[in-house]
Write a structure and sequence with these properties.
100 residues; DNA polymerase, domain 1; rod-shaped
């Protein structure tokens, strides 16, 4: 009965009393907004979750620049006088004796 209490007539029809629910929806000219998981699975559309959700379609990555207050003073000095050369790409990053 809980599924029948939902606003989605499609979800309600998939649970119990299918004929009654579909008949009432047709007579009343109801439309289903397909906001739930169950309705979208029945229709074969993407479910409203994850990166398919509208609110995640406009997410932008954070800037990759590190604010100056987060950099060590010696690194700031190297940037300022032009002596910073980055890390040695031949050595790479190490996680101790065993490497990464």
């Amino acid at each position: 009965k809980a599924s029948l209490a939902t606003e989605s007539w499609l979800s309600a029809a998939s649970f119990q009393e299918t004929t009654r629910v579909l008949t009432e929806a047709a007579i009343e000219g109801k439309s289903d907004s397909l906001m739930g998981l169950k309705e979208n699975v029945i229709i074969g559309k993407l479910i409203p979750a994850g990166t398919g959700m509208r609110q995640y379609r406009t997410v932008r990555p954070l800037p990759t620049e590190v604010p100056e207050q987060m950099l060590p003073d010696d690194l700031l000095e190297q940037f300022a006088d032009g002596t910073y050369e980055g890390y040695d790409t031949d050595e790479g990053w190490s996680m101790g004796e065993g490497g990464y």
